[in-house]
Amino acid sequence: MKQLLLSFACLLAMPLFAQKTVYIPLYIQDTNTIEGGQFTWDKTAQSDNFIMIWGNTVGTDPASYTADVSLAFNPQTILNTMEMLYDNFKDLGFLDDSAGTNLAQYKIPIIMYGTYGPDVVQGFANGGDVDGVIGAFWVHPIAMQTGDVAAHELVHSLQAQCVIDYRNANGLGPVWNNAGIFWETHANFMRNLIYPQDVTAWGMDVYHLETWGDWKNTYENYPLLFAIMDAEGINMVNRLWRESLSNEYPIAAYKRLGNYNQEQFNTIMYSHIRRMATFDFEYNNLGNYLREYRAADQLNYLPTVQAAYNVLTKVEGTENRYAIPIEQAPEEYSYNIVPLHVDAESCSVIVKFKGHTDANIHAGWRYGFVTAHPDGTVSRYSDTYSANTAEIAFALEGDETAMYLMVMGAPFNDTTTNATNDTWHGYPKHFRFPYELTITGAVPEGFQEPANFREQLKTDGAVHANGGGWVAASASVASSVYVSPSAIVLGNAQITGNVRLENTALVKDAIISGSAKVLNNAFVNGGTYSGNAIIQGQAFVENAVMSGNALVGMRARVTNYNLSGTVEVGGDVVVYNAEGSCDNGVYYKLTNFYEDNLLACDGRTADHPENSDVNSTYTQFTAQQMEMLCNCETLPNCLALAVPNNFVTDNTVLIYPNPAVNEFTVKATGETNSLKLYNAVGAVVNVVVKQSREGFTVNSSSLADGVYLAEVISDSKKQWVRVVIAH
């Protein structure tokens, strides 16, 4: 009864001009709570669409509160900002207050943190809903000094409103949660449309190898949403909220809502992804802010220096053959940006691309060139390529000064991330799409003249006599230490003994001794490393202690941890517990979302279920396979001849009918020895061992509809053919 009377009192107390009803949250209606006990109407302020509510600490005139200036605020100023944001989000179509919605009926409550005394839960800013009735948010006065935090939290309240007014009403169930990643990314996306200066580039630059929506990049995935908006309008982004199925992965929802088949969708996604090379976004000057942010990070934020541009590995014994390291191979719809440093004397940059289709049954790619003007803005995009093997060419024109090879992981059969196989399964359970390249007319990033590699970092220092790498004047590196030509030592690093810094290793402020090694494109920032410790791959280690034979590799990120003995940390493990210590076991997966989780340190091996990889091992291509057909004399006619069939490189294997219903026939030109049939998750579903020159029939009547991969061995040669089962 008390609740009903108070609700009625709320209605009576409304100003006459208001068109919406004030809804007071139930916990504030309850006079037994601290907030409810302090509620009075003279500690509220209203506008057309909002009601602010605060506690006794700042009194009835919070603008004049002087005891703690961080708690002072002007309600009218805040309400003016909120109404501006409301109008903008309504114009963008995400806010819908049409007749029949709760948003048309109720004002959005804003509850002020810090104003109810020390015994109430405090916070900075968070948004959601109250009582399943109306969106709301809770915010500290400091967070309301500018409008950007308010914009982010208002979006959270509108996301909750979308659930109330759209999804619940239509039985759609919850939006893809994944620990709120899409919620946070979308809130920043909407905020940035109004406050473009708030964008950051580091999220995509550091984590662009990860499947979109990975937990390590919770807030900064929004450039993809910029691209979708530019291409299809803001309404498509809005539809991802209103029309996605229960817990549907946003990428899968986008494909479904756009009515794209897989081939079309891969090409559409690549058209978005290639924009990331230059942040090609015109809306409200977003691209310019992103480019400025990236440029600043290249000077001041070393994780971006390490990760923004991918560094290939040169195939040993060759002049111009390269491979993407497996830890840098793109996952589905993630990407590589490979700067190409063009030879001015060459007629064109020519690239032979060959993908490792044997890595997994989803393996596919989209790739092409991007060129840029001196100011970093995009100049041209090449055609989009999808063949597993092809030769492609592009040349700089006009004032263009930069060229990039963009490669995206494009699963040929379906999106593998979904409500049950989300991004929390870790590196071993993510499909990666490796490839190799032969390049003429340019060298890729990391293989230009060493003096020009990451030259923005080389402002005060000298070339090290043992190896030729760069050492800052503030660092101390003994003559016995090997620093390879493209390795860099910065800050107050102290390196002694038989340490080796190889390839494009980056070290700052670390103490390294003994026979420790920093290899490949690893980055070590602070900490102490001794014995035979190794940091390699794309790993990032910060303020850790490593000794013995401890190893950190792949894409692992280790901070404030003590690793010793024979422990190996790899995959995409993120571990940052200051009390952590481990000396044994192999760890490729650790889900650590804002928690100080510890490594299990239980002696597990690489074969442990959490470590086992869904990707297969693959063999480096031969010199003959990577031999280039095209050159300046044979361009451009040679290009068409350099694209073989996607999977089987000749006509030695025939499967028919394809698609199949209850059976299909396998026939090869030579003697067929065996067939293995794999389903979409890599499990063997049928094995036939039969030597025949006439071919043989495979029963598929019990197989579920879908795409399968047939591994056919004929005349001791293994080949792969895709088979579609459609009953």
UniProtKB/TrEMBL annotation:
<dbReference type="Pfam" id="PF19527">
    <property type="entry name" value="DUF6055"/>
</dbReference>
<feature type="domain" description="Secretion system C-terminal sorting">
    <location>
        <begin position="655"/>
        <end position="725"/>
    </location>
</feature>
<dbReference type="Pfam" id="PF18962">
    <property type="entry name" value="Por_Secre_tail"/>
</dbReference>
<keyword id="KW-0732">Signal</keyword>
<dbReference type="InterPro" id="IPR026444">
    <property type="entry name" value="Secre_tail"/>
</dbReference>
<dbReference type="InterPro" id="IPR045690">
    <property type="entry name" value="DUF6055"/>
</dbReference>
<feature type="signal peptide">
    <location>
        <begin position="1"/>
        <end position="18"/>
    </location>
</feature>
<protein>
    <recommendedName>
        <fullName>Secretion system C-terminal sorting domain-containing protein</fullName>
    </recommendedName>
</protein>
<dbReference type="InterPro" id="IPR011004">
    <property type="entry name" value="Trimer_LpxA-like_sf"/>
</dbReference>
